[in-house]
Design a protein that fits this description.
The chain is of the alpha+beta class. The protein has one domain: Gcn5-related N-acetyltransferase (GNAT) (Aminopeptidase, 3-Layer(aba) Sandwich). It contains four helices and seven strands, in the order E-H-H-E-E-E-H-E-H-E-E. The chain has a seven-stranded mixed beta sheet, with helices on both faces.
């Protein structure tokens, strides 16, 4: 071994990756857990119960909402909501409205699974493009979206309130992926 060379330690049984979260449609019964995650992750910029209830009222007509739940034997209580995501799909355009993952479940594939489910639903609904806004200071989310083919097309100054944080506007061309 040379100086500075990295040699990974052998993985012990206790270091096995946690089982993946299980995705299912969001219901009104999930709102208390979703609201708790909203407050934990977004603080003053969290969505309200009324906003989420309004969104769920539009399912399945123009909205699609999922939760990710901890599986039996996973970290935390089984069926505990550890993430959620929502999509607006109307006509040829879709918008990722929200995507959030509990801190302890980040970097385990939960966000990827939620995003891929939203994109699959956009495809099923014959959407040709998907848009989203993401905080300019949320580099992890930006990497996730770029890995899935989203590109920055603009900036919305002061988009997130009350912090006044800017948002990147990103777009994915689903029509261009059809033959891929």
């Amino acid at each position: 071994m040379t100086a500075g060379e990295f040699v990974p330690e052998p993985r012990r049984a206790s270091q096995r990756p946690a089982p993946a979260a299980v995705l299912r449609p969001m219901t009104s019964g999930d709102l208390p857990a979703v609201l708790e995650l909203e407050r934990e992750l977004f603080g003053a910029e969290a969505w309200s119960r009324e906003m989420l209830e309004g969104e769920l009222a539009e399912v399945p007509a123009t909205r699609y909402y999922l939760v990710a739940v901890a599986p039996p034997g996973g970290a935390g209580a089984a069926d505990r909501v550890v993430g959620y995501a929502g999509l607006l799909a109307a006509g040829a355009q879709a918008d990722v409205l929200t995507l959030a993952v509990a801190t302890l479940w980040q970097r385990r594939g939960t966000g990827t699974a939620l995003l891929e489910s939203l994109l699959a639903e956009a495809g099923r609904r014959s959407c040709r493009e998907v848009f989203l806004e993401v905080r300019t200071d949320n580099e992890a989310a930006q990497r996730l979206y770029r890995r899935h083919g989203f590109a920055v097309i603009g900036v919305r100054r002061g988009y997130y309130q009350p912090s006044g944080t800017d948002a990147l506007v990103m777009r994915l061309d689903l029509a261009g992926q059809a033959g891929s």
